[in-house]
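Lab manual, section 2.4: Encoding a predicted structure.

Procedure: take the sequence of the chain (275 residues), apply the prediction step described in section 2.3, and record the output as structure tokens. A sample record is shown.
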Amino acid sequence: MSTTTLTIRNEVATYPGGTKAEGVAPKVRVQALRAWFGKQQALQGITLDVPPTAVTAVIGPSGCGKSTFIRCLNRMHELVPGARVQGEVLLEGDPIYDAAVDPVLLRRRVGMVFQKPNPFPTMSVRENVLAGLRLTGRLVPQHADLVVERALCNAALWEEVKDRLDAPGAALSGGQQQRLCIARALAVEPEVLLMDEPCSALDPVATARIEDLIHVLKSVYTIVIVTHNMQQAARVSDHTAFFLSGELVEHDRTDRIFTSPGDSRTEDYITGKFG
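Recorded output:
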């Protein structure tokens, strides 16, 4: 496993009994969440608590609402024409869909890494890292070099690109591009990091690097990862939520989900009977 050390934020929470979720307030609380694309309902009333500084995996077959769910956690769902949401999403107790909430500032607190690496192709590695800070008007020019180095270190990429900071981000390998996108998200110091199948376009070696990175990042960040890979969910997550046809079937500790699920549909999916 990687020995990368986080340098931007070094606080590490402790938990009663050494467990990651029991007895602590949720970082994100989702209550009766419903979502639509036009007339098509994608989520059927999801209620789910996301614990802090832990990894929650969202699994389920294609079209079950996984990606829609995490896009609702930072209000990206509403960017789709005709999309709408009902229900409540609370970030540390504050409703993110309140009219007073600025979605741009919310997405600074709740970052997103997408399925396919998407560095800005005309920007250098350096400028890719700084893009979010520039967008929100928070870049202090004299701190730029430090921000770039720290974000790339936190994404386990610094040693590979420190001599290529002025090269185009799109010139990096696929796995490096994905870690660059993670560095870009981390540069704005989010509290929550959403990952939508971040390894699906990567080879096994690059996938292992991202998984190692997730293990390091979860000591500081709350991570929600969508994955279709059961083995990956078992390797990287502390808790797993199984979605089916827009409904939350089961949510529990990952070891329980994979060894003694409480719903037969969960067991059928995990054992490959459908999906």
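Check your result against the sample. Strands lie at 28-37, 40-50, 55-59, 83-91, 94-95, 110-113, 192-196, 222-226, 239-244, 247-253.
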